[in-house]
Amino acid sequence: MSSGGGGIFIDPAFDISHIILSSFYLALMISAVAASIYCKGLHSFASLVFYILLIVGCALRAALFIIYILVVEQLATLEDPTADLLGTLPSFFFFTVYSVALILGTKVVDDHLPSTAKFNIKLIMRVIIIGNFIMYFMATVLYILDYVFPHPSGTGSLNTPMTLIGQIIQMLVAVIYVIGSVYFVYTLSIHYLRNWKEFRAATRNNDTELEVIRKMFLAVFGYSSLSFIVRAVMTAVTTFVSITSWSKDIFYYTVLEVLPMMLLLIIMTRRTSLILLYQQMLSLNLFSCLTRKKTEKTPLITKP
Fold first, then answer.
1. Better-predicted residue by pLDDT, 2 or 109
2. 12-284, what's its fold?
C-alpha cells in the first residue's frame, strides 16, 4: 500500500473507501438475515445453504476490509496464509450462492415448457453438487498446505499472494468462476436454440408471477455471468501483478460482487421462488427439507 506523509493517517483514501465497502457488505448481510427470517416457513436445504453462505461470506468480507485498514495504518499485521484464507474463502461461498440461484433459474425457465423441451435438471444438479464438492475439497487441501509450507516472514500482501500456494488458490478462484459461468451460459443457450419455438410460445402470457421471476432471473443471470467472468480475469491478473488502487477495489467488489449478490437475493426473497426451489429439491429427492415436518404438504403455487 502507498504510504503518504504529513498526516495522521497513512492512506486516508484507502481507509474511507474500505469503510464504505465494509458497510456495503454489512448492509447486504443484514438484508440476507432479514430475508431468511421473513421467509423461514418456505426454506429448503438449498435455500438455507444460499442464505447461510451469503451471510457468512458478507460477514467475512466486512471484517476483512476493517482488518485491511488496520494493516495499512500499521495497527495490525496479517500473515500470508491468513490473508489468503480470508481473501478467497468468501469467493467460494459466493460461487455456491450463485450455484443455488442457478438451480432455481433452471426450474423457473423449465417450468413453463412442454415435456419434450424440458431441461435435464438432474444432470445440472449433479454437475453443481459434484463441482462444489470438488471445489471445497481442493480449497481445503490448499489452505492446509498454505499454513504448513514455510512462507516469507512479515505481513501478508493485501493485493497479491506472496506464496506459491496463495497464487494457486487465487487462480483456482478465477478458473472456477470462468468454468461455472461458461458452463451455465452454454447450457441455457444451447437449450434455447434447440427449443426456441417452445420458449416463444410459452412466454406469450406475461402477467403471471412466474413470468416476472423468469424475466428477472434471465436479466440477473446474464449480468452475474458477465460480472463473474470479468472478476475472474481481474483475479487472475492480480495473482501476479499488484494493482494498488482503492478505486479498483470499489469497482471490483461493488460492481462485480455486491451488486450481483444483491440481485440474486432479491429473486430469492420472492415467495414463488422459494416454493419452486422447495418443490425442486423434493422432486429430485436429493435433500430433505430442514424446516418442515415430513407430514406437512409441499406448498403449492396458486396459478391464475
1. 109
2. Rhopdopsin 7-helix transmembrane proteins (1.20.1070)
